[in-house]
Amino acid sequence: MQNTSVPGNADERTAYLLYCLLTHKDFVKLSELADQLYVSTQTLSAVIKRVEAMLEYYHIQIQRKPYYGIRAEGSEFDKRCCLIRNFSSDGETFRRTFRVDDVKLRRIFNTLMSTLPLHQVRLTEVSLQNLAIYVYLSLQRAEQGFGIEQMPDNVAEISSHKEYAAAQAIYSILCADEKDHPSLREEELCYAAVYIAGRRNVGAVRGNFVISEKTDSLVVEMLENIYTTFQIDLRDNLSLRMMLNQHLQPLDIRLRYGIPVENPILQDIKREYFFAYTIADQTVVTLREHYQCAIPESEVGWLALIFQMAVESRHAIARLNILIICASGSASSHLLLSRIKRAFPAYIAKAEVCTIFELEHRDLGGIDYIFTTVPIPFPVGVPILEIHDFIQHYELQNIKKVLQRQHMQFLQQFYQERFFFTGISGPTKEEALQQLCAHIRQNCPDLPGGFYESVLKRESLGPTDYGNMVAIPHPYEIMTRDNVVAVAVLDKPILWNTNTVQLVVLVSLSADENPYVPSFYNVTSQFVMSETAVPALFGFPLMLNFKIIIPFVCSNALSGVIAYIAMSLGLVAVPTGLIQLPWTMPVILSGFMVTQSISGAVLQIVQLVVATLFWLPFMRSADREIYEAEKAAEAAAKEG
Asked: Is the pTM higher than 0.85?
Protein backbone atom coordinates (compact mmCIF):
# COMPACT_ATOMS: atom_id res chain seq x y z
CA MET A 1 0.00 0.00 0.00
CA GLN A 2 1.30 3.41 -0.85
CA ASN A 3 0.36 4.91 2.48
CA THR A 4 3.45 4.24 4.60
CA SER A 5 1.99 5.35 7.92
CA VAL A 6 1.63 2.69 10.61
CA PRO A 7 -1.98 1.42 10.98
CA GLY A 8 -3.28 2.99 14.17
CA ASN A 9 -6.53 1.15 14.91
CA ALA A 10 -8.25 -2.20 14.38
CA ASP A 11 -9.87 -1.20 11.07
CA GLU A 12 -6.60 0.05 9.61
CA ARG A 13 -4.73 -3.07 10.74
CA THR A 14 -7.45 -5.27 9.20
CA ALA A 15 -7.23 -3.42 5.89
CA TYR A 16 -3.44 -3.64 5.91
CA LEU A 17 -3.40 -7.40 6.52
CA LEU A 18 -6.18 -8.02 3.98
CA TYR A 19 -4.29 -6.12 1.29
CA CYS A 20 -1.02 -7.84 2.22
CA LEU A 21 -2.50 -11.35 1.89
CA LEU A 22 -4.28 -10.62 -1.40
CA THR A 23 -1.22 -9.10 -3.07
CA HIS A 24 1.39 -11.71 -2.05
CA LYS A 25 1.76 -15.15 -3.59
CA ASP A 26 4.17 -16.49 -1.00
CA PHE A 27 3.70 -17.08 2.72
CA VAL A 28 4.05 -14.09 5.02
CA LYS A 29 5.66 -14.71 8.41
CA LEU A 30 3.62 -13.77 11.46
CA SER A 31 6.64 -12.20 13.15
CA GLU A 32 7.17 -9.90 10.17
CA LEU A 33 3.49 -8.91 10.16
CA ALA A 34 3.60 -8.18 13.90
CA ASP A 35 6.67 -5.98 13.40
CA GLN A 36 5.07 -4.13 10.48
CA LEU A 37 1.89 -3.48 12.47
CA TYR A 38 3.72 -2.78 15.76
CA VAL A 39 1.43 -5.17 17.65
CA SER A 40 1.81 -8.29 19.78
CA THR A 41 1.21 -11.76 18.36
CA GLN A 42 -1.99 -11.95 20.45
CA THR A 43 -3.36 -8.77 18.82
CA LEU A 44 -2.25 -10.05 15.42
CA SER A 45 -4.22 -13.27 15.98
CA ALA A 46 -7.38 -11.23 16.56
CA VAL A 47 -6.75 -9.29 13.33
CA ILE A 48 -6.20 -12.53 11.41
CA LYS A 49 -9.54 -13.91 12.67
CA ARG A 50 -11.30 -10.78 11.51
CA VAL A 51 -9.67 -10.95 8.06
CA GLU A 52 -10.45 -14.67 7.85
CA ALA A 53 -14.16 -13.94 8.34
CA MET A 54 -14.06 -11.31 5.58
CA LEU A 55 -12.30 -13.66 3.16
CA GLU A 56 -14.70 -16.52 3.83
CA TYR A 57 -17.53 -14.77 1.97
CA TYR A 58 -15.36 -14.77 -1.17
CA HIS A 59 -14.43 -18.47 -0.79
CA ILE A 60 -10.86 -17.54 0.13
CA GLN A 61 -9.13 -19.48 2.90
CA ILE A 62 -6.11 -18.58 5.00
CA GLN A 63 -3.50 -21.34 4.69
CA ARG A 64 -1.21 -21.76 7.70
CA LYS A 65 2.19 -23.44 7.54
CA PRO A 66 4.54 -23.76 10.53
CA TYR A 67 7.74 -21.69 10.23
CA TYR A 68 6.48 -20.17 6.96
CA GLY A 69 3.49 -18.10 8.06
CA ILE A 70 0.15 -17.55 6.31
CA ARG A 71 -1.16 -16.84 2.82
CA ALA A 72 -4.53 -16.47 1.08
CA GLU A 73 -5.74 -19.45 -0.97
CA GLY A 74 -8.49 -18.86 -3.51
CA SER A 75 -9.26 -18.00 -7.12
CA GLU A 76 -7.84 -14.80 -8.61
CA PHE A 77 -11.34 -13.62 -9.57
CA ASP A 78 -12.52 -13.98 -5.96
CA LYS A 79 -9.47 -12.06 -4.76
CA ARG A 80 -10.22 -9.22 -7.17
CA CYS A 81 -13.85 -9.04 -6.03
CA CYS A 82 -12.67 -8.90 -2.43
CA LEU A 83 -10.17 -6.12 -3.20
CA ILE A 84 -12.79 -4.07 -5.04
CA ARG A 85 -15.37 -4.51 -2.28
CA ASN A 86 -13.02 -3.47 0.52
CA PHE A 87 -10.81 -0.84 -1.11
CA SER A 88 -13.06 1.05 -3.53
CA SER A 89 -15.62 2.55 -1.14
CA ASP A 90 -14.35 5.99 -2.16
CA GLY A 91 -12.07 7.21 -4.90
CA GLU A 92 -9.33 8.43 -2.58
CA THR A 93 -8.95 5.04 -0.85
CA PHE A 94 -8.77 3.27 -4.20
CA ARG A 95 -6.18 5.70 -5.59
CA ARG A 96 -4.02 5.52 -2.46
CA THR A 97 -4.17 1.72 -2.19
CA PHE A 98 -3.41 0.82 -5.82
CA ARG A 99 -1.32 3.85 -6.83
CA VAL A 100 -3.80 4.70 -9.55
CA ASP A 101 -2.75 6.36 -12.79
CA ASP A 102 -5.59 8.88 -13.26
CA VAL A 103 -4.95 9.21 -17.00
CA LYS A 104 -5.26 5.45 -17.46
CA LEU A 105 -8.41 5.28 -15.32
CA ARG A 106 -10.03 8.10 -17.32
CA ARG A 107 -9.21 6.24 -20.55
CA ILE A 108 -10.94 3.15 -19.16
CA PHE A 109 -14.05 5.21 -18.28
CA ASN A 110 -14.19 6.70 -21.77
CA THR A 111 -13.81 3.27 -23.34
CA LEU A 112 -16.64 1.84 -21.25
CA MET A 113 -18.93 4.78 -22.02
CA SER A 114 -18.41 4.41 -25.77
CA THR A 115 -18.34 0.59 -26.01
CA LEU A 116 -21.10 -0.70 -23.71
CA PRO A 117 -24.02 1.03 -25.53
CA LEU A 118 -22.88 -0.52 -28.80
CA HIS A 119 -23.48 -3.97 -27.26
CA GLN A 120 -26.77 -2.95 -25.60
CA VAL A 121 -25.34 -3.30 -22.11
CA ARG A 122 -26.53 -0.62 -19.71
CA LEU A 123 -25.16 -0.09 -16.20
CA THR A 124 -26.06 2.21 -13.34
CA GLU A 125 -23.54 4.89 -12.40
CA VAL A 126 -22.33 2.86 -9.40
CA SER A 127 -21.97 -0.32 -11.46
CA LEU A 128 -20.11 1.57 -14.17
CA GLN A 129 -17.67 2.90 -11.58
CA ASN A 130 -17.09 -0.58 -10.17
CA LEU A 131 -16.58 -2.04 -13.65
CA ALA A 132 -13.96 0.61 -14.38
CA ILE A 133 -12.18 -0.31 -11.16
CA TYR A 134 -12.35 -4.01 -12.06
CA VAL A 135 -10.88 -3.39 -15.52
CA TYR A 136 -8.09 -1.23 -14.07
CA LEU A 137 -7.33 -3.82 -11.42
CA SER A 138 -7.40 -6.72 -13.89
CA LEU A 139 -4.83 -5.01 -16.12
CA GLN A 140 -2.64 -4.13 -13.15
CA ARG A 141 -2.82 -7.61 -11.62
CA ALA A 142 -2.09 -9.27 -14.97
CA GLU A 143 1.06 -7.13 -15.31
CA GLN A 144 2.12 -8.15 -11.78
CA GLY A 145 1.74 -11.86 -12.54
CA PHE A 146 -1.67 -12.36 -10.88
CA GLY A 147 -3.56 -13.40 -14.01
CA ILE A 148 -6.59 -15.66 -14.15
CA GLU A 149 -5.55 -19.09 -15.38
CA GLN A 150 -8.73 -21.17 -15.02
CA MET A 151 -11.80 -21.01 -17.23
CA PRO A 152 -15.26 -20.68 -15.63
CA ASP A 153 -17.44 -23.78 -15.68
CA ASN A 154 -19.97 -22.58 -18.26
CA VAL A 155 -17.53 -21.01 -20.71
CA ALA A 156 -19.59 -21.95 -23.78
CA GLU A 157 -22.64 -20.15 -22.40
CA ILE A 158 -20.62 -17.08 -21.39
CA SER A 159 -18.89 -16.71 -24.75
CA SER A 160 -22.27 -16.63 -26.51
CA HIS A 161 -23.58 -13.64 -24.55
CA LYS A 162 -23.26 -9.99 -25.52
CA GLU A 163 -21.34 -9.28 -22.31
CA TYR A 164 -18.48 -11.37 -23.69
CA ALA A 165 -18.48 -9.39 -26.93
CA ALA A 166 -18.45 -6.18 -24.90
CA ALA A 167 -15.50 -7.43 -22.81
CA GLN A 168 -13.58 -8.35 -25.98
CA ALA A 169 -14.12 -4.90 -27.45
CA ILE A 170 -13.15 -3.09 -24.24
CA TYR A 171 -9.91 -4.97 -23.66
CA SER A 172 -8.95 -4.85 -27.35
CA ILE A 173 -9.14 -1.05 -27.30
CA LEU A 174 -7.26 -0.72 -24.01
CA CYS A 175 -4.49 -3.16 -24.95
CA ALA A 176 -4.06 -1.51 -28.35
CA ASP A 177 -3.60 1.89 -26.68
CA GLU A 178 -0.55 0.56 -24.82
CA LYS A 179 1.93 -1.00 -27.24
CA ASP A 180 3.91 -2.69 -24.49
CA HIS A 181 0.79 -4.18 -22.93
CA PRO A 182 0.36 -7.88 -23.77
CA SER A 183 -3.00 -9.16 -25.00
CA LEU A 184 -5.09 -10.71 -22.26
CA ARG A 185 -5.75 -14.42 -21.93
CA GLU A 186 -9.12 -15.87 -22.86
CA GLU A 187 -9.77 -16.62 -19.17
CA GLU A 188 -9.52 -12.90 -18.36
CA LEU A 189 -12.13 -12.03 -21.01
CA CYS A 190 -14.55 -14.70 -19.75
CA TYR A 191 -14.40 -13.48 -16.18
CA ALA A 192 -14.68 -9.85 -17.27
CA ALA A 193 -17.88 -10.87 -19.09
CA VAL A 194 -19.10 -12.55 -15.91
CA TYR A 195 -18.45 -9.35 -13.93
CA ILE A 196 -20.33 -7.22 -16.49
CA ALA A 197 -23.28 -9.64 -16.50
CA GLY A 198 -23.44 -9.54 -12.71
CA ARG A 199 -23.58 -5.75 -12.74
CA ARG A 200 -25.90 -5.00 -15.64
CA ASN A 201 -29.37 -3.57 -15.29
CA VAL A 202 -31.63 -6.22 -16.84
CA GLY A 203 -34.81 -4.16 -16.85
CA ALA A 204 -33.20 -1.36 -18.83
CA VAL A 205 -31.87 -3.54 -21.65
CA ARG A 206 -33.61 -3.24 -24.98
CA GLY A 207 -34.69 -6.35 -26.83
CA ASN A 208 -36.32 -9.58 -25.70
CA PHE A 209 -36.05 -10.68 -22.12
CA VAL A 210 -36.31 -14.48 -22.00
CA ILE A 211 -37.22 -16.02 -18.66
CA SER A 212 -35.63 -19.39 -18.05
CA GLU A 213 -37.71 -22.17 -16.55
CA LYS A 214 -35.07 -22.65 -13.84
CA THR A 215 -35.25 -19.02 -12.71
CA ASP A 216 -39.04 -18.92 -12.79
CA SER A 217 -39.23 -22.11 -10.71
CA LEU A 218 -37.01 -20.46 -8.11
CA VAL A 219 -39.29 -17.40 -8.07
CA VAL A 220 -42.32 -19.65 -7.56
CA GLU A 221 -40.56 -21.29 -4.59
CA MET A 222 -39.85 -17.85 -3.10
CA LEU A 223 -43.50 -16.77 -3.40
CA GLU A 224 -44.67 -20.10 -1.96
CA ASN A 225 -42.32 -19.56 0.98
CA ILE A 226 -43.91 -16.17 1.62
CA TYR A 227 -47.40 -17.69 1.59
CA THR A 228 -46.56 -20.53 3.98
CA THR A 229 -44.75 -18.19 6.38
CA PHE A 230 -46.92 -15.06 6.40
CA GLN A 231 -50.16 -16.27 4.78
CA ILE A 232 -49.81 -13.48 2.23
CA ASP A 233 -50.64 -14.71 -1.25
CA LEU A 234 -48.48 -12.99 -3.85
CA ARG A 235 -48.38 -16.05 -6.09
CA ASP A 236 -50.86 -14.64 -8.61
CA ASN A 237 -49.10 -11.25 -8.85
CA LEU A 238 -47.76 -11.49 -12.41
CA SER A 239 -46.02 -8.12 -12.26
CA LEU A 240 -44.10 -9.13 -9.11
CA ARG A 241 -43.20 -12.46 -10.67
CA MET A 242 -41.76 -10.77 -13.76
CA MET A 243 -39.77 -8.24 -11.69
CA LEU A 244 -38.28 -11.02 -9.57
CA ASN A 245 -37.34 -12.99 -12.68
CA GLN A 246 -35.56 -9.96 -14.10
CA HIS A 247 -33.78 -9.27 -10.80
CA LEU A 248 -32.66 -12.88 -10.40
CA GLN A 249 -30.82 -12.91 -13.74
CA PRO A 250 -27.84 -10.76 -12.58
CA LEU A 251 -28.33 -11.91 -8.97
CA ASP A 252 -27.72 -15.51 -10.09
CA ILE A 253 -24.35 -14.49 -11.55
CA ARG A 254 -23.38 -12.44 -8.49
CA LEU A 255 -24.13 -15.30 -6.11
CA ARG A 256 -22.42 -17.98 -8.20
CA TYR A 257 -19.25 -15.94 -8.63
CA GLY A 258 -19.27 -13.98 -5.36
CA ILE A 259 -19.56 -10.55 -7.01
CA PRO A 260 -20.36 -7.93 -4.34
CA VAL A 261 -23.07 -5.32 -4.80
CA GLU A 262 -23.41 -2.12 -2.78
CA ASN A 263 -26.60 -0.93 -1.14
CA PRO A 264 -26.11 2.58 0.27
CA ILE A 265 -29.77 2.84 1.35
CA LEU A 266 -29.90 -0.46 3.28
CA GLN A 267 -30.60 1.12 6.67
CA ASP A 268 -33.29 3.36 5.17
CA ILE A 269 -34.95 0.31 3.61
CA LYS A 270 -34.96 -1.50 6.98
CA ARG A 271 -36.45 1.50 8.72
CA GLU A 272 -39.03 2.59 6.12
CA TYR A 273 -39.99 -0.78 4.55
CA PHE A 274 -39.51 -3.16 7.43
CA PHE A 275 -42.26 -5.60 6.45
CA ALA A 276 -40.98 -5.79 2.88
CA TYR A 277 -37.49 -6.40 4.26
CA THR A 278 -38.88 -9.17 6.49
CA ILE A 279 -40.49 -10.79 3.46
CA ALA A 280 -37.26 -10.51 1.47
CA ASP A 281 -35.30 -11.94 4.37
CA GLN A 282 -37.60 -14.96 4.40
CA THR A 283 -37.15 -15.55 0.66
CA VAL A 284 -33.41 -15.61 1.31
CA VAL A 285 -34.01 -19.00 2.95
CA THR A 286 -35.05 -20.32 -0.48
CA LEU A 287 -32.07 -18.65 -2.20
CA ARG A 288 -29.63 -19.95 0.39
CA GLU A 289 -30.86 -23.51 0.02
CA HIS A 290 -30.64 -23.21 -3.76
CA TYR A 291 -27.18 -21.62 -4.02
CA GLN A 292 -25.70 -23.16 -0.85
CA CYS A 293 -24.12 -19.86 0.16
CA ALA A 294 -24.82 -16.90 2.42
CA ILE A 295 -26.86 -14.03 0.93
CA PRO A 296 -25.48 -10.56 1.78
CA GLU A 297 -27.73 -8.01 3.48
CA SER A 298 -27.24 -5.65 0.54
CA GLU A 299 -28.99 -8.17 -1.75
CA VAL A 300 -31.83 -8.59 0.76
CA GLY A 301 -32.34 -4.82 0.70
CA TRP A 302 -32.72 -4.70 -3.09
CA LEU A 303 -35.21 -7.58 -2.99
CA ALA A 304 -37.15 -5.69 -0.29
CA LEU A 305 -37.75 -2.76 -2.67
CA ILE A 306 -39.39 -5.13 -5.17
CA PHE A 307 -41.62 -6.65 -2.49
CA GLN A 308 -42.52 -3.19 -1.17
CA MET A 309 -44.12 -2.31 -4.49
CA ALA A 310 -46.16 -5.51 -4.38
CA VAL A 311 -47.24 -4.93 -0.78
CA GLU A 312 -48.33 -1.35 -1.49
CA SER A 313 -50.33 -2.41 -4.53
CA ARG A 314 -52.37 -4.97 -2.56
CA HIS A 315 -52.66 -3.19 0.79
CA ALA A 316 -55.92 -1.27 1.14
CA ILE A 317 -56.30 1.12 4.06
CA ALA A 318 -59.14 0.08 6.37
CA ARG A 319 -61.40 3.14 6.56
CA LEU A 320 -64.29 3.86 8.90
CA ASN A 321 -67.99 4.64 8.42
CA ILE A 322 -69.17 7.72 10.33
CA LEU A 323 -72.67 8.93 11.20
CA ILE A 324 -73.08 12.64 12.09
CA ILE A 325 -75.97 13.83 14.29
CA CYS A 326 -76.64 17.59 14.24
CA ALA A 327 -79.59 19.53 15.71
CA SER A 328 -79.02 22.80 13.85
CA GLY A 329 -80.55 21.82 10.55
CA SER A 330 -79.66 20.21 7.26
CA ALA A 331 -77.32 22.98 6.04
CA SER A 332 -75.13 23.01 9.15
CA SER A 333 -75.09 19.19 9.20
CA HIS A 334 -73.73 19.02 5.67
CA LEU A 335 -71.18 21.77 6.39
CA LEU A 336 -69.99 19.74 9.37
CA LEU A 337 -69.92 16.61 7.22
CA SER A 338 -67.89 18.38 4.55
CA ARG A 339 -65.31 19.69 7.02
CA ILE A 340 -64.78 16.29 8.68
CA LYS A 341 -64.37 14.55 5.31
CA ARG A 342 -61.82 17.15 4.20
CA ALA A 343 -59.89 16.89 7.47
CA PHE A 344 -59.68 13.07 7.53
CA PRO A 345 -59.77 11.67 3.99
CA ALA A 346 -57.41 8.80 4.87
CA TYR A 347 -59.60 7.52 7.71
CA ILE A 348 -63.19 7.89 6.50
CA ALA A 349 -64.76 5.58 3.92
CA LYS A 350 -68.34 6.87 4.20
CA ALA A 351 -69.91 9.66 6.26
CA GLU A 352 -73.66 10.34 6.52
CA VAL A 353 -75.91 12.68 8.49
CA CYS A 354 -79.24 12.21 10.26
CA THR A 355 -81.32 13.84 13.01
CA ILE A 356 -81.66 12.68 16.58
CA PHE A 357 -85.23 11.58 15.79
CA GLU A 358 -84.16 9.48 12.79
CA LEU A 359 -81.39 7.86 14.78
CA GLU A 360 -83.71 5.84 17.04
CA HIS A 361 -85.16 3.94 14.07
CA ARG A 362 -82.02 3.76 11.94
CA ASP A 363 -80.10 0.55 11.27
CA LEU A 364 -76.58 1.17 12.58
CA GLY A 365 -75.07 -1.90 11.05
CA GLY A 366 -71.72 -1.00 9.48
CA ILE A 367 -71.42 2.29 11.42
CA ASP A 368 -68.12 2.53 13.31
CA TYR A 369 -68.58 5.89 15.10
CA ILE A 370 -71.26 8.48 15.80
CA PHE A 371 -70.24 12.16 15.94
CA THR A 372 -73.00 14.19 17.56
CA THR A 373 -73.64 17.82 18.54
CA VAL A 374 -76.47 16.86 20.92
CA PRO A 375 -76.69 14.31 23.75
CA ILE A 376 -78.16 10.95 22.74
CA PRO A 377 -80.66 9.87 25.46
CA PHE A 378 -80.95 6.19 24.43
CA PRO A 379 -78.41 3.36 23.91
CA VAL A 380 -77.16 2.91 20.35
CA GLY A 381 -74.39 0.30 20.69
CA VAL A 382 -71.88 2.40 18.72
CA PRO A 383 -69.05 4.56 20.14
CA ILE A 384 -70.08 8.23 20.43
CA LEU A 385 -67.96 11.39 20.21
CA GLU A 386 -69.65 14.68 21.15
CA ILE A 387 -68.59 17.77 19.14
CA HIS A 388 -69.79 21.35 18.51
CA ASP A 389 -71.76 22.70 15.56
CA PHE A 390 -68.78 24.88 14.59
CA ILE A 391 -66.06 22.36 15.13
CA GLN A 392 -62.97 23.73 16.90
CA HIS A 393 -59.32 22.97 16.20
CA TYR A 394 -58.87 21.00 19.43
CA GLU A 395 -61.94 18.93 18.51
CA LEU A 396 -60.34 18.05 15.18
CA GLN A 397 -57.34 16.79 17.13
CA ASN A 398 -59.62 14.72 19.39
CA ILE A 399 -61.39 13.26 16.36
CA LYS A 400 -58.05 12.36 14.81
CA LYS A 401 -56.96 10.57 18.00
CA VAL A 402 -60.21 8.60 18.09
CA LEU A 403 -59.89 7.57 14.44
CA GLN A 404 -56.24 6.62 14.87
CA ARG A 405 -57.06 4.58 17.96
CA GLN A 406 -59.76 2.73 16.04
CA HIS A 407 -57.33 2.38 13.16
CA MET A 408 -54.78 0.63 15.43
CA GLN A 409 -57.16 -1.73 17.20
CA PHE A 410 -56.06 -4.55 14.90
CA LEU A 411 -52.90 -4.82 17.05
CA GLN A 412 -54.99 -6.58 19.69
CA GLN A 413 -55.11 -9.53 17.29
CA PHE A 414 -51.34 -9.87 17.66
CA TYR A 415 -50.14 -8.44 20.97
CA GLN A 416 -51.52 -9.90 24.21
CA GLU A 417 -50.38 -9.07 27.72
CA ARG A 418 -49.81 -12.71 28.64
CA PHE A 419 -47.03 -12.98 26.05
CA PHE A 420 -44.84 -10.18 27.44
CA PHE A 421 -41.91 -11.59 29.42
CA THR A 422 -38.88 -10.46 31.39
CA GLY A 423 -36.29 -12.47 33.30
CA ILE A 424 -34.94 -14.29 30.23
CA SER A 425 -31.29 -14.82 31.14
CA GLY A 426 -29.82 -17.29 28.66
CA PRO A 427 -26.21 -16.47 27.70
CA THR A 428 -26.74 -17.73 24.12
CA LYS A 429 -29.56 -17.24 21.64
CA GLU A 430 -30.39 -20.98 21.81
CA GLU A 431 -30.86 -20.87 25.58
CA ALA A 432 -32.75 -17.58 25.42
CA LEU A 433 -35.12 -19.01 22.79
CA GLN A 434 -35.57 -22.20 24.82
CA GLN A 435 -36.60 -20.18 27.90
CA LEU A 436 -38.88 -17.95 25.81
CA CYS A 437 -40.59 -20.94 24.17
CA ALA A 438 -41.09 -22.48 27.64
CA HIS A 439 -42.77 -19.27 28.83
CA ILE A 440 -45.00 -19.29 25.74
CA ARG A 441 -46.00 -22.90 26.41
CA GLN A 442 -47.03 -22.00 29.96
CA ASN A 443 -49.44 -19.38 28.59
CA CYS A 444 -50.45 -21.35 25.50
CA PRO A 445 -50.98 -25.02 26.48
CA ASP A 446 -51.93 -26.08 22.94
CA LEU A 447 -48.57 -24.95 21.53
CA PRO A 448 -47.55 -27.74 19.11
CA GLY A 449 -44.61 -29.98 19.90
CA GLY A 450 -41.41 -29.12 18.09
CA PHE A 451 -42.10 -25.39 18.23
CA TYR A 452 -38.68 -24.58 19.69
CA GLU A 453 -36.95 -26.86 17.17
CA SER A 454 -38.79 -25.14 14.30
CA VAL A 455 -37.58 -21.73 15.51
CA LEU A 456 -34.00 -23.01 15.68
CA LYS A 457 -34.29 -24.46 12.17
CA ARG A 458 -35.28 -21.05 10.82
CA GLU A 459 -32.38 -19.45 12.72
CA SER A 460 -29.93 -21.85 11.08
CA LEU A 461 -31.02 -20.69 7.62
CA GLY A 462 -30.44 -16.97 8.05
CA PRO A 463 -30.08 -14.19 10.61
CA THR A 464 -33.14 -12.65 12.26
CA ASP A 465 -31.29 -9.89 14.13
CA TYR A 466 -31.96 -6.59 12.39
CA GLY A 467 -29.76 -4.31 14.47
CA ASN A 468 -30.79 -1.82 17.17
CA MET A 469 -30.47 -4.67 19.74
CA VAL A 470 -33.60 -6.38 18.32
CA ALA A 471 -34.19 -9.88 16.95
CA ILE A 472 -37.46 -11.08 15.37
CA PRO A 473 -37.28 -14.89 15.17
CA HIS A 474 -40.13 -17.08 13.97
CA PRO A 475 -40.79 -20.77 13.28
CA TYR A 476 -39.69 -22.34 10.02
CA GLU A 477 -43.33 -22.96 9.13
CA ILE A 478 -46.77 -21.99 10.45
CA MET A 479 -47.43 -23.97 13.64
CA THR A 480 -49.99 -22.13 15.80
CA ARG A 481 -53.75 -21.94 15.39
CA ASP A 482 -53.84 -18.31 16.59
CA ASN A 483 -51.40 -15.43 16.26
CA VAL A 484 -48.72 -15.58 18.96
CA VAL A 485 -46.38 -12.60 19.33
CA ALA A 486 -44.08 -13.01 22.35
CA VAL A 487 -42.03 -10.02 23.47
CA ALA A 488 -39.08 -10.68 25.77
CA VAL A 489 -36.61 -8.25 27.32
CA LEU A 490 -33.42 -10.16 28.12
CA ASP A 491 -31.64 -9.51 31.41
CA LYS A 492 -28.37 -8.95 29.55
CA PRO A 493 -27.51 -8.31 25.90
CA ILE A 494 -26.29 -11.40 24.03
CA LEU A 495 -24.67 -11.98 20.65
CA TRP A 496 -27.39 -13.29 18.33
CA ASN A 497 -25.81 -13.79 14.92
CA THR A 498 -23.85 -10.70 13.97
CA ASN A 499 -25.55 -8.18 16.25
CA THR A 500 -26.01 -7.80 20.00
CA VAL A 501 -29.64 -8.35 21.05
CA GLN A 502 -31.63 -7.58 24.19
CA LEU A 503 -35.18 -7.34 22.81
CA VAL A 504 -36.69 -10.47 21.21
CA VAL A 505 -40.03 -10.37 19.37
CA LEU A 506 -40.94 -13.97 18.48
CA VAL A 507 -43.69 -14.01 15.85
CA SER A 508 -45.82 -17.07 15.07
CA LEU A 509 -48.70 -16.25 12.71
CA SER A 510 -51.82 -18.33 12.35
CA ALA A 511 -52.70 -20.28 9.24
CA ASP A 512 -55.62 -17.95 8.46
CA GLU A 513 -54.91 -15.18 5.96
CA ASN A 514 -55.00 -11.85 7.77
CA PRO A 515 -55.06 -8.52 5.86
CA TYR A 516 -53.52 -6.76 8.86
CA VAL A 517 -50.21 -8.68 8.80
CA PRO A 518 -48.41 -5.93 6.79
CA SER A 519 -49.77 -3.27 9.15
CA PHE A 520 -48.64 -5.31 12.15
CA TYR A 521 -45.08 -5.48 10.85
CA ASN A 522 -45.06 -1.81 9.87
CA VAL A 523 -46.25 -0.65 13.29
CA THR A 524 -43.85 -3.02 15.03
CA SER A 525 -40.96 -1.75 12.93
CA GLN A 526 -41.62 1.85 13.99
CA PHE A 527 -40.80 0.78 17.53
CA VAL A 528 -38.05 -1.81 17.08
CA MET A 529 -36.10 0.39 14.64
CA SER A 530 -36.41 3.50 16.81
CA GLU A 531 -33.02 4.59 18.15
CA THR A 532 -34.67 6.15 21.22
CA ALA A 533 -37.60 3.85 22.05
CA VAL A 534 -35.65 0.58 22.27
CA PRO A 535 -32.84 1.87 24.54
CA ALA A 536 -35.46 3.51 26.75
CA LEU A 537 -37.14 0.12 27.15
CA PHE A 538 -33.97 -1.26 28.71
CA GLY A 539 -33.36 1.81 30.88
CA PHE A 540 -36.80 2.39 32.37
CA PRO A 541 -37.17 -0.80 34.44
CA LEU A 542 -34.24 0.24 36.67
CA MET A 543 -35.52 3.77 37.24
CA LEU A 544 -39.11 2.65 37.77
CA ASN A 545 -38.11 -0.12 40.18
CA PHE A 546 -39.09 1.27 43.58
CA LYS A 547 -36.55 -0.85 45.42
CA ILE A 548 -33.72 0.57 43.32
CA ILE A 549 -34.80 4.21 43.13
CA ILE A 550 -34.72 4.56 46.96
CA PRO A 551 -30.96 3.92 47.35
CA PHE A 552 -30.28 5.72 44.08
CA VAL A 553 -31.72 8.96 45.45
CA CYS A 554 -31.07 8.61 49.17
CA SER A 555 -27.42 7.47 49.03
CA ASN A 556 -26.41 10.65 47.23
CA ALA A 557 -28.30 12.79 49.73
CA LEU A 558 -26.72 10.87 52.62
CA SER A 559 -23.22 11.46 51.22
CA GLY A 560 -23.98 15.17 51.01
CA VAL A 561 -25.15 15.27 54.63
CA ILE A 562 -21.97 13.47 55.79
CA ALA A 563 -19.77 15.98 53.93
CA TYR A 564 -21.70 18.96 55.36
CA ILE A 565 -21.37 17.71 58.96
CA ALA A 566 -17.65 16.87 58.59
CA MET A 567 -16.84 20.31 57.18
CA SER A 568 -19.06 22.13 59.69
CA LEU A 569 -17.20 20.45 62.56
CA GLY A 570 -13.83 21.30 61.04
CA LEU A 571 -12.92 17.65 60.53
CA VAL A 572 -12.37 18.21 56.80
CA ALA A 573 -10.92 21.22 55.04
CA VAL A 574 -13.44 23.29 53.07
CA PRO A 575 -12.64 23.45 49.32
CA THR A 576 -11.61 26.94 48.22
CA GLY A 577 -12.88 26.53 44.65
CA LEU A 578 -9.50 27.53 43.20
CA ILE A 579 -8.86 23.99 41.94
CA GLN A 580 -11.24 22.77 39.22
CA LEU A 581 -10.99 19.05 38.49
CA PRO A 582 -12.48 17.10 35.55
CA TRP A 583 -15.36 14.77 36.43
CA THR A 584 -13.24 11.79 35.37
CA MET A 585 -10.83 12.28 38.29
CA PRO A 586 -10.90 9.09 40.43
CA VAL A 587 -12.57 9.06 43.84
CA ILE A 588 -10.26 9.55 46.86
CA LEU A 589 -7.65 11.27 44.67
CA SER A 590 -10.16 13.98 43.80
CA GLY A 591 -11.01 14.44 47.49
CA PHE A 592 -7.36 14.98 48.34
CA MET A 593 -6.73 17.42 45.48
CA VAL A 594 -9.84 19.57 45.90
CA THR A 595 -9.27 20.06 49.65
CA GLN A 596 -5.45 19.98 49.50
CA SER A 597 -5.66 17.73 52.57
CA ILE A 598 -5.63 14.02 53.37
CA SER A 599 -8.88 14.63 55.25
CA GLY A 600 -10.71 15.05 51.89
CA ALA A 601 -9.58 11.61 50.80
CA VAL A 602 -10.67 10.09 54.14
CA LEU A 603 -14.07 11.76 53.79
CA GLN A 604 -14.65 10.13 50.37
CA ILE A 605 -13.64 6.73 51.76
CA VAL A 606 -16.24 7.13 54.53
CA GLN A 607 -18.90 8.23 52.00
CA LEU A 608 -18.11 5.24 49.78
CA VAL A 609 -18.40 2.77 52.67
CA VAL A 610 -21.68 4.27 53.92
CA ALA A 611 -23.21 4.34 50.41
CA THR A 612 -22.21 0.70 49.83
CA LEU A 613 -23.76 -0.41 53.14
CA PHE A 614 -26.91 1.56 52.28
CA TRP A 615 -27.22 -0.11 48.84
CA LEU A 616 -26.43 -3.63 50.08
CA PRO A 617 -29.86 -4.76 51.40
CA PHE A 618 -31.66 -3.41 48.33
CA MET A 619 -29.31 -5.20 45.97
CA ARG A 620 -29.63 -8.45 47.95
CA SER A 621 -33.40 -8.23 47.64
CA ALA A 622 -33.22 -7.59 43.89
CA ASP A 623 -30.72 -10.43 43.46
CA ARG A 624 -33.02 -12.78 45.39
CA GLU A 625 -35.91 -11.94 43.03
CA ILE A 626 -33.77 -12.56 39.96
CA TYR A 627 -32.55 -15.86 41.39
CA GLU A 628 -36.12 -17.03 42.04
CA ALA A 629 -37.09 -16.01 38.49
CA GLU A 630 -34.13 -17.95 37.07
CA LYS A 631 -35.12 -21.07 39.00
CA ALA A 632 -38.70 -20.77 37.79
CA ALA A 633 -37.53 -20.32 34.19
CA GLU A 634 -35.23 -23.35 34.43
CA ALA A 635 -38.06 -25.46 35.85
CA ALA A 636 -40.36 -24.28 33.08
CA ALA A 637 -37.71 -25.08 30.47
CA LYS A 638 -37.36 -28.62 31.82
CA GLU A 639 -41.14 -29.09 31.73
CA GLY A 640 -41.25 -27.73 28.16
From this structure: no
